[in-house]
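Help wanted!
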Amino acid sequence: MSRWQYLLKRILLALPVVLFGVTVTFLIVRLGPIDPAAAILGPENGSGAEAERIRRQLGLYDPLWQQYFDYLVNLVTLNMPNSWVISPGTPAFELILIYLPRTMWLGFWSVLIALFVGIPLGFYAGLNPNTSGDYIASFGGIVWRAMPNFWLAVILVSLLAQSKDLLGFEWSKLLVETNIVTPPSIAFFNNPVEFITNPGETFTELLKAIKQVAPAALVLGSSSMGNEMRIGRTAVLETINSNYVETARAKGLSERSIVWKHVFRNALIPLIPIITSEAFILISGSVLVELVFAINGMGYLFLQASVQGDLPLVGALMYISIVLLVSVNILQDVLYTVVDPRVGLEQN
Amino acid sequence: MSQRSATAKPVLSVQNLQTSFYTDKEVIRAVDGVSFDIYRGETVGIVGESGSGKSVTARSIMGLVKSPGRIEGGRIEFEGDDLTEKSEKQWRKIRGNGISMVFQDPLTSLNPVYTVGNQIKEALRLHQGLRGKKATDEAVELLEAVGIPDARRRLREYPHEFSGGMRQRAVIAMALACDPEVLICDEPTTALDVTIQAQILELLDELKEERDLGIMFITHDMGVIAEVADRVNVMYAGEMVESAPVEELFQNPRHPYTRGLLKSIPGRAGPDERLSTIEGDVPTPNEEPTYCRFAPRCPKEFEDCNAVHPEPVSVTADANDHTAACLLYPEDVSTAEAVETHKRGDSK
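Answered by r_m:
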């Protein structure tokens, strides 16, 4: 089986998972105790003619199977009707297009922090076990891992807000002027051509957008960073003491090529599932961190939509998350087959 | 069986090698004053129980003793140089090139994420600068030399696609890649089943003849030693207790330890006899030897054994090339005189 056939097979197998996920979402929202009409009108006005009218308008009196069927068709065609409660009059997917990029932008940077700080630190610690460098890195990893997001977020915001007094420089005026808590302004993504036609201004915009999410990304990525550091350290230690590394040494290879060729790739194998699952968590957003830093992203939207029974929005959001999760899983399995030849493409 | 000619010089000569491990509590003298020579076209067997210092001897010769261990004294002469004085970089040029090593477990001695060909060619490139097609051709030749059919296709396969015996052949091919003078085999057949074991031993014998190799063969299996070795060194608690040509050793074992070892081979005793064993364990050699380390387990122990450290001496005045480190020898003088010889620290 070629890698492409394998990929196709995995995608086909993912379809039932997505269907199952959106079905459960539908059942929970529609069969649960939340009444969208009450959410729109306010808790006191849950009954009466107005509520009746809204229910009829939203199609809540249609047979359940018909509602379910409409819901599925709308999801597949990406043509979800307007949001019911959060922002009536705006189609659900349009709302997501506003909120999702902010979360992705934040998630992207927090994944990068975890990847490019956590893993190198872990590898460094594993290659120099029981040295002071290892102790500092390992201890740091545990501390980062242990600090809860919501706490770290609040502390960081208050630290940055008083940075002039506490740190000696003003964070909000550093490099470019930005607010400390704000949704990132990433409008420049709509016009990527501007990077070439108008580089100066666009790069300032880019810098601004990075600076706006940097503290949030640091907080969000911190626990993953700690995790990946710890596991990276263990993976390197396990690999460096393995017999094939000894064989490679006996061949006369230099320590550098042993580390880069023989240790690195093997140590990545246990890290793949950690990286991908952490990446999914980061990209799919965090309510707490988004709230503290006023990112106004998916996490915030998700929370609001679910507590208010906004079925089109919740359905669309769940659909996006499930597709994202399934894709990350497929990516993980494909990465496995790339890094580790023992993971076969055949089923037996 | 090759005979040493009087004028031949040993290709590898180990003299009074001392390797110790420094732990927080104590210093473990894993190899304590071991001396032996290896000539071209000769297999020198090293036998002993677990913990007797066989593998540390091998690793010392390869310069692969890991911290907290280090070579403390003695000489390892190879091609006129003393290896113990070499820097790590100089030693790397010899590893895999002049002296190669085959490890115990073929299942884990090959890196699972690279093809067998890649790992053989790695050594060829490192020491001989071969690349591309030349390296491939050479690798094919090597695999064929160790009896792997369809070598060109096999080069592109991964270790997990090889059987255990095939993997050990591949490891041997890798060790032979740069035409070494000396091949160190650290229990190369222990992890294999008996038929495969016989094949590998035969292969090593053929390669020795063809390439005029000096082989140092480490094992705890007396049966294997009888099959492959031209000369046997028996190790106990970091010391060489007896050394003799293989036939002599099996016919006339002198040291009580060697006798015990030979008696404990199943099959040599009659069907109704109880298999004899040597009571107790190998002691951890953690202090200066001022007594015979085997005395607590020795059936022939007498008073002086706990006060005088035995040196390797010729077993009889006219014995040809047969030494034992036991106060009972030389045999042709009275025990009191023999003890005096050992007290003076005479060697041979």
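OP: Thanks! One thing I noticed: Chain A has a mean pLDDT of 83.
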